[in-house]
Design brief:
The protein is 24% helix and 32% strand. With 203 residues, the chain is an alpha/beta fold. The protein has helices at residues 9-17, 37-42, 54-67, 102-115, 142-147, and strands at residues 24-28, 46-51, 73-75, 88-93, 116-128, 154-155, 167-181, 184-197. It is built from 5 helices and 8 strands.
């Protein structure tokens, strides 16, 4: 199996491997033709994922069938994650959360913090205000239809720190990458976080 475009998650996987916890992980926004959960499956993790968009979910399930693996990806919304508190050792949202409005981002990060265990790690990446362009989503796009979001939410360098209320930020970096889409050169600017959940009752 090969999973493309998920390079930033290798650092998260490395840090998860170093933790003395059961290898079980949740991907929030797990759909698409190259599901990053396959990276964790290859590394021996028990994998779970949720995906709100039907087309993206079907692509991930088709990948699972083609590869003969069960990644356990369910139709669900990360604003209301359908798992009990402290279910997972690790959880992440890769290239997904910035499609939401800021109130929904806050709700989603709180839900992610709820479902993984104290001592465990979570990963999320956010669009930076340094990314050029601010085109609105098309009316029929999944963010508009499912999330009522108009455009990417963007954050300044430390602005997204506020979402991690139950966690300590243990790793953070800002990345700028360019890629060519036809004749156009596109710049992506992201701020990546890895956070560790504090013990229950810790401030």
């Amino acid at each position: 199996m090969e999973v493309h475009r998920a390079t930033p998650l290798y650092e998260f996987l490395r840090q998860c491997d170093a933790q003395p916890m059961t290898r079980v992980v949740l991907d929030c926004g797990a759909g698409g033709p190259d599901p990053p959960l396959a990276l964790f499956h290859q590394a021996g993790y028990k994998t779970y994922g949720i995906e709100i968009a039907r087309e993206a979910l079907e692509e991930a399930l088709a990948y699972s069938r083609a590869q003969g693996v069960n990644l356990t990806i369910l139709p669900a919304d990360m604003r209301h994650i359908p798992f009990p508190r402290d279910t997972f050792s690790f959880a992440y949202s890769f290239n997904t959360i910035f499609f939401m409005t800021e109130p929904d981002i806050a709700l989603s990060v709180a839900e992610i913090e709820r479902v993984f265990k104290p001592g465990g790690l979570c990963y999320a990446n956010f669009k930076s205000v340094d990314e050029p362009g601010d085109r609105p989503f098309s009316p029929r796009s999944p963010p508009r239809r499912l999330l009522r979001s108009q455009r990417f939410s963007k954050h300044s360098d430390d602005e997204a720190d506020k979402y991690f209320r139950a966690c300590d930020i243990v790793w953070k970096q800002k990345t700028l990458t360019t890629c060519r889409q036809g004749p156009e050169v596109v710049v992506h600017a992201n701020i990546e976080y890895i956070a560790q959940k504090r013990p229950c009752g810790a401030g």
